[in-house]
Design brief:
Elements: E1 2-5, E2 12-14, E3 18-19, H1 33-45, E4 50-52, H2 61-71, E5 79-84, E6 86-90, E7 93-96, H3 100-114, E8 119-125, H4 129-132, H5 135-147, E9 150-156, H6 164-168, E10 174-180, H7 192-199, E11 202-206, H8 235-251, H9 259-268, E12 275-276, H10 283-290, E13 305-307
Parallel strand pairs: 3-4, 4-5, 5-8, 8-9, 9-10, 10-11, 11-12
Antiparallel strand pairs: 1-2, 1-13, 6-7
Helix pairs in contact: 1-2, 1-10, 2-3, 3-5
Length: 308
């Protein structure tokens, strides 16, 4: 496993992280604690140390699965990132809550669910610019850093085409950004990545497999089960994406290389990217994701590169 430092923090994270939206029950599967334990055990065995979750992944459900695991394992082995700004009500239904008092309650609820005294990276979750421009909120979060509840603050960007929050990040104490970035969506390369590199902000690349389209499992015309979130998406757009994936498979993915592994390595080639955070359903997918480390073409003398 390779590790890179998040911006100017002291957090050295594995270049392959673990996204945990699926634990909240909206990926067409309900997980048991035993299944979550097996995934986290394998992640640890592969050298993965970053867990990314959120308060609204099943009303702290994902956090509780992780917290139950952390209760029985070494907290120091993990860098835990979670998010704030929403309340989960039912599948795919959330309300927005950005008042500083509400966020403080969310923080305390996340700490309790995660069974930890501190969160390594606490991220604003897809906030609008209006919600971002809230001095009271950032002041409160800074006080929580001083109190030891939070180590560092991040922003999970709502869109890839508005650099305002990236430009203002340092002013409010933000050290890391989370963005959608993959072979099918390279928009962050235009404005977000150059600013992030200049400001020394860490980048967590989410949806690196483009919601599974870059897994190599699906052909144009594929149908998804009603319980699968992808069944909600525009059919014509799905077909076009899968046609593009088919071309990428033919022209770019090396022979005998799993497309999903290649797709993660592709993200890591960009020097602005600190880590990718794919989801997974089982330990086998964790192993496949971790294998992307060996395909990464990032220079070994990159200033953020650390071997462990």
């Amino acid at each position: 496993m390779q590790y890179r430092r998040i911006g100017t923090t002291n957090l050295d994270v594995s270049v392959i992280g673990l996204g945990t939206w699926q634990f909240g029950g909206e990926w067409g599967k309900d997980f048991s604690q035993k299944e979550v334990d097996a995934i986290l055990d394998e992640a640890n065995a592969q050298g993965i140390n970053l867990i990314d979750t959120a308060e609204c992944y099943g009303d702290h459900l994902s956090e509780r699965f992780i917290g139950e695991y952390l209760k029985r394992h070494s907290r120091e082995d993990w860098i835990v990132a979670t998010k704030f700004g929403h309340h989960f009500h039912r599948a795919f239904e959330r309300t927005r809550h950005w008042n500083s008092d509400d966020v403080l309650k969310q923080l305390d609820q996340s700490l309790k669910a995660l069974n930890t005294e501190y969160i390594d990276l606490y991220q604003a979750h897809s906030c609008t610019d209006e919600e971002f421009n809230n001095d009271t909120l950032w002041t409160m979060l800074d006080k929580q850093k001083q109190a030891g509840k939070i180590r560092h603050i991040g922003v999970s960007l709502r869109t890839n085409d508005d650099p305002y929050q990236v430009t203002a990040a340092r002013e409010v104490g933000v050290n890391a950004l989370q963005v959608v970035y993959n072979r099918l969506d390279q928009a962050p390369e235009q404005e977000i990545f150059p600013i992030a590199e200049k400001e020394q902000l860490g980048i967590l690349a989410r949806v690196p497999l483009a919601s599974g389209y870059l897994s190599g499992k699906y052909k144009p015309g594929a149908n998804f089960e009603p319980s699968d979130v992808r069944s909600r998406r525009d059919k014509e757009e799905q077909t076009e994406k899968l046609k593009q994936v088919e071309e990428i498979m033919k022209k770019e993915v090396p022979e005998n290389t799993p497309m999903a592994t290649w797709a993660l390595a592709w993200c890591l080639q960009h020097p602005a990217v600190t880590t990718v955070i794919p989801g997974c359903k089982n330990p086998e997918q964790v192993i496949s994701n971790a294998a992307a480390t060996n395909l990464s073409l990032v220079s070994q003398d990159h200033p953020q590169h650390v071997n462990k």
